[in-house]
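## tool: complex_structure
## caller: assistant
## args:
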Amino acid sequence: MDKNKKKASLKDVASYVGVSTSLVSFVLNGKGRLHRVSEETIAKIKKAAEKLNYQPNSFAKSLREGKSRVIGVVLSDISNPFFSMIARYLEDEAEKYGYSILFASSDENRDRAEKQIAHLVSRGADGIILVPCEKSEKTVEAVLETGKPLILIDRYFPTIRTNYVCLNNREVSRLATEHLLTHGFSHPGVIAYDTTLQHMQDRVNGYKQAMTEAGKAGLISESRVKEANLHNAISGSISRMLAEGVDSLLFATNNIATEALKVIKGKGIRIPEDLGIIGFDGGNAFELFHVPVSYIRQPISLLAQKAVEIIMDEILMGEKMTHQVEVQGSLVITESSIKSC
Amino acid sequence: MDKNKKKASLKDVASYVGVSTSLVSFVLNGKGRLHRVSEETIAKIKKAAEKLNYQPNSFAKSLREGKSRVIGVVLSDISNPFFSMIARYLEDEAEKYGYSILFASSDENRDRAEKQIAHLVSRGADGIILVPCEKSEKTVEAVLETGKPLILIDRYFPTIRTNYVCLNNREVSRLATEHLLTHGFSHPGVIAYDTTLQHMQDRVNGYKQAMTEAGKAGLISESRVKEANLHNAISGSISRMLAEGVDSLLFATNNIATEALKVIKGKGIRIPEDLGIIGFDGGNAFELFHVPVSYIRQPISLLAQKAVEIIMDEILMGEKMTHQVEVQGSLVITESSIKSC
DNA sequence: TTGGATAATTAAATCGTTTTAGCTAAATTT
DNA sequence: AAATTTAGCTAAAACGATTTAATTATCCAA
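## result:
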């Protein structure tokens, strides 16, 4: 094994051909013509680079150029299906620009997120894509102060002027509720996380709006679920709401929906006879449930595409405007949300 | 906004305190005492670094040291739950060493994997953790030639001497089949991917071994499933095997198990009366199925922990030995694999 | 008081690029 | 023939750190 053969550097190529490193750099960066290097030399240099298997040293390049071609992504938890899908699309989109992605999971922990971001920045990330966690306004503002390109994804803070891409949470949630109301359910409820994060508030607000529009503001009986001890909390909520007369439920996240389906299965609640349901983000899991489950579909790939597009604009072209994009979710309707009368 | 205030460099700290950059470097790397810097100066330098919010430039550091503190990970597809779990544990383990992880998805495509690896190496990854795809022996060998630390995870090539961490596929698969044989099922079958990858062969071989040990070698009627058109292929396999008298099935991956459960639900096959089943890797999805599903549990966190441990040994200490680790899977048994007689 | 330790610090090379400014020789203009 | 332009190339600084060898100052022993 020749594990000791060092990688060839610009200098190696240069001395192999018998020219200066400048020429090699010009040629290999496609600026040969611009710097009027002779065709002959261009050819020789290219051949030599090939032959020596020259690979530019990315550290030297980054040091010199002040660019890393890496985007840092901090999301809630990459093992959560929703976020791992986002991760995958971000990866694909970034690749189109020749960028790589450095991932980190915050676990919805503010301090952890702060550390992760600092770490990514110190690693030289050219920009940050962030799924911000609750009460992390200061963290976000700190990144903004840096001037480092930043875009929030999935969530945003109404009080902070940043780039963000998120779902039209309120509207799609309103639509889902309206659908329940017009398909045999007179008393819908909603189960959401008990967080101040705006996207979650929006999902609840969409529900409230639909109820109000239907003249049922009086029926609003929301149950919020704390993330801790999720399964039990959801189980309790469902029992309580059923007792109160709720006849259908909107689940505000994929996780909540999945846990709720387990509870429903466990309690033997009939869908849609006893309870109409609409989940968030379909997925393999739902398909194993004994009744097809209606859900709100998020265009995850679009979410990722927009996020990368916007941050790349800022990184590459110095775009200064703030972009705030809402992508449109849609309703996928099946048996679980239609009461046959 | 003071977006123009450049980050402070070593030189800035040095001139702020009125010393040379050497001293600052010594002190901030904890080698102050070693180079007998006076306590007074140490204190001054630390305070100044704090005050100027000095963050070392990682490119300069990497360039000089020839280390990046980044591990490159190429896996099949980060949006696949199994791999996103691995990704998450890898992230956590690497963090313990102060390392970050650069992810890339190969989509089981050899050329893509090759490109991704090249990309990660050119990005300066100190080592590569790889889920190799079919027929990628040459790619793996090419990495080995480089001398860059490498470890395969989840899969391996018996013909190549590399570090790897994988499940005791054959044994756990044998156990699962044996379990079926001793719990009311006289004619088990297996559904696996039609690939030459050894881990998959091992899973099938474990099944065959159990059958042979039970004196039922004659009953071996395996169905292999091509990845393309998965759902339909599995549907066909299940029908065919049931017709052939198969009374129970071992599914060799989580994906196969999930798709199979959908088929089973669709066809109204009763579990375990008509068919006993054992899946691979439990997960949220299984819990929504109307019968609790037995499965083979992989210690994913251990898999990741070992992988990082081994590659870090090589990166940091120049460990030269090849480590080949098999972690032990276990059977999680519920109703789906026990025929009540 | 000369020489040798010892303590405290610094100068300068180095890592591998990119890029600006400058140099030489040939070609063209006046 | 002198001046200018152009073609083709190179030298050297810069990016921001680490590290080796060198330097200065101080103190102590002989």
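## assistant note: Residues 169-298+331-337 of chain A form a domain with the Rossmann fold fold (CATH 3.40.50.2300). Chain A touches chain B through 49 residues (CB under 8 Å). Handing back to user.
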